[in-house]
Specification:
Helix content: 40-55%
Strand content: 15-25%
Oligomer: single chain
Structural class: alpha/beta
Amino acid sequence: MDNPLPIVCFAGLSGAGKPNALAHLARLGYFCTDAVVPSLALTTLTELSSHYPQVAIGLELSRMEFLAEFEQLVAELRDRSIPLIFLEADDDSLVQQLSATRSRHPLQERTNSVLEAVQLERQMLAPVRLQCTHTLNTGLLTTGQLQDCLERIVLRQEVPALVVGLTSFGFKYGLPVDANVVFDVRCLPNPYYTPKLRPLTGRDAPIRDFLFNHPVTQSTYQQILSTLNHFLPLYSAERRPWVQVAIGCTGGQHRSVAIVEQLTIDLGQSATTGYEFRLDHRHLERSQAEIAARDAHFTRGNGSA
């Protein structure tokens, strides 16, 4: 994420989606906290900014004394060029959202109904709304559209790259619990059964040559590459921050490693929307250690015989 705004503040109406907005910024790498009263906002921002590069807070403005404190805060935010985003929606949308989330409106005890509480809060926060740098009507936006709006504000028009985790693993050690997409390549020829290839890994040229000289490896690989080239742009358009792709063989040393290494090269060349790749050979060292120990055991056994 290039040059994001270091600090972002939120205000708005109850039920307008402040927790969802903060949650999305958290996915973009922000440290987020909600319900900060104006008198403590600057202290909170200063303390958090000393530990985190990007910070977002939601303001608590449900009491009149908080609104009085807001006047001083907003002047400080303006001087520091810190954006203050106000979230709102129409009355019906707010009532429905509060009902759907089973949330009690903070002003409900002062009124006879949720609708009256919504209307009272709108009246109270009208001066706050006018002093905010941005106003978003979440009742008119889909989740994706709201995320786009937030990203245009905090990323200065830049869209974060989709992080693609490419992981090799061994089925004998268990399926990665964080995988979103899994391909099983145990159907490919296994270098393990060729003694001179057994201690090598999918990073080594002899293993890659052994595998990709087989037509079944070439056709299987092209199917995997085509599938990912189809789905990764869809994940990116959905504004997912991370997709974990796992390629598995028996031990996670030969076939899966070779496929993942080649995918990193080919996907990087074919990507048009800009992906960030994270490579992880999860069980490679464990498999190598087991094969080395097994070969040493057999060698000692043959020697003693």
